[in-house]
Design goal:
This protein is mostly helical. Helices cover 77% and strands 0% of the residues.
Length: 442
């Protein structure tokens, strides 16, 4: 009994110092979030390239747009399929190791493409290396950081980190478009490789895997000890998939997010620039419009995170998809050699909606799947990228076959209407029965 009392007294002696360490002027969680933001920007630099390089690669090597689109689709598919395993690997080996390795892979793939001479090399460099690298820094990375470091403001932080990809687009699209126009596609590829490598030291020096590593509680929560590294990452990832796949909400979330990917990364990011160029618009002007999408994407995604903390995520998703579908149906009528006010309106409107779907989708994953939510979201993200991959490939094929992208715009608009309806039928989880997210989980 005496030993117990002494132990408790020692614990009490340690507690004030721990409390002091848990309350710095700027909580360490915000520093980790800032590093995550910069990391996603560096990793997203490559995403600015494919749409800019379809025409230059077609001209230099004679590869069809379908072949080039296939390489982009491999990249997008691997990006999505890697994400759920990356979340589990971060649980096993730590965020810093996984992300630093991923950035190096992106840089290697982008740099190696400078010397390619055959389309199969494009599949390996763009598809395999870059796909695996960017997939390891996908939205599941943001979900892992948010779940570990934040209890309060999760919706807002999710919106900010999701907007990082758009910020990368904003930074690199105009730059890469200018480089391609003035110096060719190879210097642009080297530029994005260097952008990925520059971020690695920030990750190694400033990123921390868990609040307990620095003696802190997560922002807005209570102190929790760091869990032991989880072994069997791949097994756990697959097990979570089979468990989630037995529930209806998983398929609805996966289906809506597949349509999200098809109508954003697969469609606009990959084919907007060549489609605008088909109508006589200069590549630099079309790339600048995509960059403007990035500006309003940041605003829309952060605002969506704020809304997700306050309103029903299902209704938010339905509104986002419905508005996106309507805008895509009008896009073919807006294409032309000049940038006119109706096109600017589309860019602003579409930009606000670009990845506004992410915060409510992630919130629904947390609500439905609790401590497994980051891995489940990784699988939902995989469906997003599979949808993007299909449209990246079929969009190129449609252009080769029909000589126009119009059919792809109309089909994507119709799919968005389907996603809006699917969002509304996702079942609610009662507060009393909802799985409780745990800070110690990914």
């Amino acid at each position: 009994m005496t030993e117990t009392i002494e132990s408790a007294a020692q614990d009490d002696d340690r507690r004030p110092s721990l409390e002091a360490r848990r309350r710095p002027r700027v909580h360490r969680a915000w520093i980790v979030a800032a590093v995550t933001f910069v990391t996603i920007i560096g990793g997203a630099a490559f995403n600015s390239l494919p749409g800019l390089l379809i025409d230059p690669l077609h001209t230099e090597f004679g590869w069809s747009r379908g072949e080039i689109g296939l390489a982009v689709s491999i990249d997008m598919a691997l990006y999505g399929l890697t994400a759920p395993f990356a979340a589990a690997l971060m649980d096993r080996f730590g965020i810093r190791r996984v992300v630093a390795t991923a950035l190096t892979m992106v840089a290697a793939g982008a740099l190696a493409s400078v010397w390619m001479t055959a389309s199969w090399q494009l599949m390996i460099y763009w598809g395999l290396l870059v796909g695996l690298g960017t997939g390891s820094m996908a939205m599941a990375f943001a979900a892992t950081v948010t779940n570990r470091w934040f209890v309060a403001r999760r919706g807002l932080v999710t919106g900010i980190l999701t907007a990082a990809g758009a910020s990368g687009q904003l930074v690199f699209l105009p730059l890469c478009a200018w480089i391609v126009d003035e110096h060719g596609w190879r210097p642009a590829s080297v530029t994005v490789a260097l952008a990925a490598l520059v971020v690695v030291p920030f990750v190694c020096l400033l990123m921390r895997d868990h609040p307990a590593d620095v003696g802190l509680a997560p922002y807005g929560g209570a102190y929790v000890a760091k869990p032991a590294p989880a072994r069997g990452a791949a097994r756990r990832t697959v097990k979570v998939l089979f468990k989630a796949a037995r529930t209806g909400p998983f398929w609805l979330l996966a289906g809506t997010f597949a349509i999200c990917g098809a109508s954003t990364n697969g469609l606009i990011r990959t084919h907007f620039v060549p489609s605008a160029h088909d109508h006589g618009m200069p590549i630099t002007a079309a790339a600048s419009l995509l960059a403007v999408i990035g500006i309003f994407d940041v605003i829309g995604t952060i605002f969506s995170g704020w809304l997700t903390d306050r309103f029903d995520a299902r209704r938010l998703l339905a509104v986002y998809y419905a508005l996106r579908g309507i805008s895509l149906l009008f896009l073919p009528m807006l294409m032309g050699p000049d940038v006119r006010p109706p096109m600017v309106f589309f860019i602003v409107f579409y930009g606000l909606d670009w990845v506004a779907t992410v915060p409510p989708t992630l919130a629904l994953c947390r609500e439905q799947y609790g401590e497994d939510s980051a891995i489940v979201f990784g699988w939902v993200l995989a469906s997003h990228q599979v949808g993007a991959a299909v449209v990246a490939f079929l969009g190129g094929v449609a252009r080769d076959v029909f000589g126009s992208y119009d059919v792809v715009w109309y089909a994507s608009g119709a799919l968005c209407a389907v996603a809006a309806l699917m969002s509304l039928v996702i079942r609610r989880v009662r507060a009393s029965s909802a799985p409780e997210p745990t800070v110690s989980s990914v």
